[in-house]
Design brief:
The structure is a single chain. By secondary structure, the chain is an all-alpha fold.
Length: about 60
């Protein structure tokens, strides 16, 4: 009886593996998610406007002398 249960258990496991393989073969499996956020991300670039020292409005001590 123990031998029969062991054979039945192994046969059931083989049947489940076979059915799962057939199901994956028919449907094509699970699609792999693609991470497109990094590819389509909008990058915000900020640049400082270069100004001359005279245009900045700051008075230097050396200019006052």
């Amino acid at each position: 009886m123990k031998q029969f249960k062991k054979v039945l258990r192994v046969a059931g496991m083989i049947m489940l593996i076979t059915l799962a393989s057939v199901g994956v073969g028919i449907t094509g499996g699970i699609p792999v998610p693609s991470n497109r956020r990094k590819d389509n991300s909008i990058e915000i670039k900020t640049e400082l406007k270069e100004t001359d020292e005279n245009e900045s409005g700051n008075i230097r001590y050396e200019d006052c002398l």
